[in-house]
Structure formats: C-alpha cells, structure tokens
C-alpha cells in the first residue's frame, strides 16, 4: 500500500461528487505484499479486517534524492 502526495479528488470526467474532495485527504493506493484477497486491494474494505487478517498491509516513506 502506498500513501501518495495526491489530493483526493474526482477522476477526470467523473460525475461522482463528494464533500471530501479538496485539500483534506491524500490518496492511498495498492495493497499489501501478500494481498491475495482482493478485499484488501481496496482501502474502503481495510477497516473491516479482523485482527491478523491484513498483517502484511503497511506503508512506505519515500523521498526524492537531491
């Protein structure tokens, strides 16, 4: 799973709207390295995991090298 620097906003040409759009939330993408269960590839479902079900889900920090 990767927390990106992108703000949460509508996809181009999307008709979906949300009060959460704007510079409030960043985008999380992907899944864990052992995410065979497709439920954990969608962040909307991760909060429903039982303890120990998604132990491979984490995050990484990245920085540009100068």
From TrEMBL:
Gene3D superfamilies registered for this protein in UniProt: paralog of FGE (formylglycine-generating enzyme)
Domain Sulfatase-modifying factor enzyme-like: start-end pairs: 2-63
Signal peptide coordinates: none
UniProt-recorded name of the protein: Sulfatase-modifying factor enzyme-like domain-containing protein
InterPro entries tied to this protein: CTDL_fold, SUMF_dom, SUMF_sf
Any coiled-coil regions, as ranges: none
Pfam family, one: FGE-sulfatase
């Amino acid at each position: 799973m990767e927390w990106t620097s992108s703000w949460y906003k509508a996809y181009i040409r999307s008709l979906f709207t949300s009060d959460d759009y704007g510079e409030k939330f960043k985008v999380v993408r992907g899944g864990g390295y052992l995410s065979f269960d497709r439920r954990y590839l969608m962040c909307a479902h991760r909060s429903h995991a039982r303890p120990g079900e998604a132990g491979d889900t984490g995050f990484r920090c990245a920085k540009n090298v100068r």
